[in-house]
Amino acid sequence: MPISNYNDSSSDSEVTSISNRFRGYLPVVVDVETAGFNHQTDALLEIAAVLLRTNEKGVWERDKSYFCHVTPFEGANLEKAALEFTGIDPFHPFRFAVSEDEALRTIFQPIRQALRETHCTRAILVGHNPSFDLNFLNAAVGRAQIKRNPFHPFSTFDTATLAGLAFGQTVLAKAVRAAGLGWDGKQAHSAQYDAEQTADLFCKIVNMWGDKVSFRNQENVF
What we know:
Layout: H1 6-9, H2 12-21, E1 25-34, E2 44-54, E3 60-69, H3 80-86, H4 100-118, E4 122-127, H5 130-144, E5 151-158, H6 159-167, H7 172-178, H8 191-209
Parallel strand pairs: 1-4, 4-5
Antiparallel strand pairs: 1-2, 2-3
Helix pairs in contact: 6-8
């Protein structure tokens, strides 16, 4: 699935606003579903990434989503309690799951394209308690021996913290509702649904902050 072309569909000012807003970093929302809490031993079962864009008014909004069911890596641990919580059957034939390597390449390709088109230097993972997602992502990258990970290796944007500041809520479902966005509990714990809800929440908070942030003369150093 191709991403929207920033160069063709967006003005130069829009691309500039994206590249300047976070000092050359492109926020990409990621959510994973797993078979446990240990990123070194437990299986990665779903991964979703959501790209963001700004519209003609400079308002941040959700763009394209990318999602894969993932086959447990060889020797992966599958915690029964985790599977019962998510409702995922790792070996169901209709999951059409792919290897970690294929899943990561599917997710990373449009992110790399977006980095080029927005003139950003690197992606930065946005998530709800994102250290969990980043740890599983980085572990899968290591197993797949992917040398060009587009994400910053340790920095993230945490919507749990941002929502706590903006709305007084840190649980994703409660934060989304407090932000005036819809929440469907039946779709929760799907990586794609949770990532898209997190993306809408992040955009809502960034747009609320608006003109309070000056983007001029920012150095692209971390």
